[in-house]
Amino acid sequence: MSNRPLAAAGRLVPLLRAGLIAGIVIAAAAYPLVALTGLGAKATAHAVEQKTRLLTTALPAETSYLYAPDGKTVLTMFYEEYRQYTKLSDMSPNIQQAIVAAEDSRFYQHHGVDPKGVARAFVANAHSSGVSQGASTLTMQYVRMALRDSATTPKEVQEATQQTSLRKVKEMRMALDLEKEMSKEDIMERYLNSAYFGHRAYGIYAASEIFFSKTPKDLTPVEAATLAGLVKSPSEYDPADSDQKEATGRRNYVLDRMSQLGYMSPDSAAAAKSEPIRLKLTNPPNDCAAIPEKYNSWGFACDYLKNWWSAQPAFGANRLERIDKLRRGGYRIVLSIDPKIQEAAEKNVGAKEGTGSPFANGIVVSEPGTGRVKAMAVNRTYSLDLAENPQSSNPEAGPNVKANYPNTVAPLLGGGDLPGYQAGSTFKMFPMLAALDSGMTLSTSFNAPYRYKSSVYDGWAPSNASGAMTGQQTMWSGFGKSVNTYFVWLEERVGADRAVRLAEQLGLRWRTDVDREQASPGKAKKWGAFTLGVSDATPLEMANAYAAIAADGRYCEAIPVQAIMDRDGTPATYATPGGIHREVAKPRCRQVVSADAARAATDAARCPTGDTPARGGCGGWSTADSVRGTVGRPVAGKTGTTDSTRSAWFVGYTPELAAASFISDPDNPFNAVGDGQSQIPIAAVAETLRDGLKGQPTRQFTPPSDAIVG
């Protein structure tokens, strides 16, 4: 074999030792094909400079944390790369010394590229006719990791990691430039936060927690040497394998190097090498299914958070970008769920229908004036494991289709892509509120027959649930008794389209083809059955719509968080169309109807609950007259059932909280729950409001004005 490459390397060493860029380029030119790349071209140099500037600001992906309302209890995390950025001052000197000993013993002497290392690699690569040795310093390794982490396209990822001479030379150039911009301490900090240690541990914080269940500040020399040894080959030196031979050998090599570099005495190194590797493994939770069993029902709120997040333009241009931001952005997210109200909701749903029933009984509680969701509970276990679920109750489902109980992660309470459930007479609120806001009064009277034939709706002739509803009705008595014919007549006068548009302003969305067609501008005027609740809705929507009435007509978008902090500790913001930056977690509210119209609707809505309105009479009886006695404070609301009681609802509210509960079979809407089950949502709402508000001062509803009473 010729000695010419060795001789050439010998001539280059003095240049390399001098740290001259020219020497590095010449040495690198010995790598195959580099001389043909046009490295010195102005365009290439400009591109390298641009990327170098990027590296001084680029940060690696970081885990987002989801907290309970106390801001301290971690419910779960969201990540692709489990990582928590840690300052160098919060790391033990042991890990800094160990990583230098393992990867780059001359880190504090060179300026980004180690001339000796390049010479060694040049010789080795000349003999192998390829790139067999990389000569990568910690700075060069960081450059590679940062380019990979900041890549936005597959091509950029490939360019950052491919084993080519051109990539290596660019890496050298960027490392030299980077060390002019950043201190050794900053580079060390970035490196230790970027490196992969195996077992989904990205960065030293994750590695310390996963392997030893401690923080980087508390790492011993033995633990630090074990982790530092992993960077070279995480799978080969994995200490969690049953055979720790390779991991121990690598650790001992690092300990020897630490001794040789003066970081520890030979005796200390020898003692450390005699110790076995003692692991205390931790498996960090990821995503909603990993929420602790104690908080299992909070999984539905977590799932709603993800769906809500994916619709927020503040986090990206589309759903994929937004979820990627959640899993890589290092956010600190505090749920809006109130533990006391959530506990009450969990206790009061499914009291008669346990998790083993095909009928889902769920409840959502919303806060008037903010839209913050305070509770989400359903008689289901939040779990991805459907193995023990029975076959679906839907006869049209295939033989291998599982039911949604007892385990599910389906968004049964709203916020996802399921259409919801027919909400029955709870929809009577929308034409009544539209009528009041248009100038009609609570005293608007109509002699409601048992059956009413509508000339506006092409002869459609709905009837009442009972003959006892026949007679003269006002908004108070018509709402309290749920008189169908009164509300069809009222809807004719205000216009079904106006009621539909108002429902939309209060947050309702049409998710089935039939509902979308009926709600369209060309059809809405003739949608007479809208007031009877033939459209699908979710409890999340209904709780939030009624919350707007409790808030004097001020609608606030449903929101599952009370705070979202960026990785730098500042509130996450978004830009409005007018260019104003607002916090993402702040309520987004707007006045939809006049305060007086909302107060009047509330006065009528006290009738169904057995409460006494401030200004009128309820007509002697109501559909849920037990609610006032259960809640023990002023309360308004509305019952709702569908044909053959396929589903049953109750939406109720006080000045402080609004709650919507339903019971239905999500798999098969034709599986009727029956009349006997219609009391379940009524009890769930009444008892949840009672328990959730226990100990709080009693607030009164504001009475409507004389003008709107009539």
UniProtKB/TrEMBL annotation:
It catalyses: [GlcNAc-(1->4)-Mur2Ac(oyl-L-Ala-gamma-D-Glu-L-Lys-D-Ala-D-Ala)](n)-di-trans,octa-cis-undecaprenyl diphosphate + beta-D-GlcNAc-(1->4)-Mur2Ac(oyl-L-Ala-gamma-D-Glu-L-Lys-D-Ala-D-Ala)-di-trans,octa-cis-undecaprenyl diphosphate = [GlcNAc-(1->4)-Mur2Ac(oyl-L-Ala-gamma-D-Glu-L-Lys-D-Ala-D-Ala)](n+1)-di-trans,octa-cis-undecaprenyl diphosphate + di-trans,octa-cis-undecaprenyl diphosphate + H(+); Preferential cleavage: (Ac)2-L-Lys-D-Ala-|-D-Ala. Also transpeptidation of peptidyl-alanyl moieties that are N-acyl substituents of D-alanine. Residues 363-667 form the Penicillin-binding protein transpeptidase domain. It comes from the Bacteria. The keyword Transmembrane helix applies. Keywords: Carboxypeptidase, Cell shape, Cell wall biogenesis/degradation, Glycosyltransferase, Hydrolase, Membrane, Multifunctional enzyme, Peptidoglycan synthesis, Protease, Transferase, Transmembrane, Transmembrane helix. InterPro entries: Beta-lactam/transpept-like (IPR012338), Glyco_trans_51 (IPR001264), Glycosyltr_51/Transpeptidase (IPR050396), Lysozyme-like_dom_sf (IPR023346), PBP_transglycosylase (IPR036950), PCN-bd_Tpept (IPR001460). Residues 74-258 form the Glycosyl transferase family domain. One of its GO terms (molecular function) is penicillin binding. One of its GO terms (biological process) is regulation of cell shape. The chain crosses the membrane at residues 12-34. GO terms for cellular component: outer membrane-bounded periplasmic space. Pfam families: Transgly, Transpeptidase. In the N-terminal section; belongs to the glycosyltransferase 51 family. This is Penicillin-binding protein. It comes from Micromonospora orduensis.
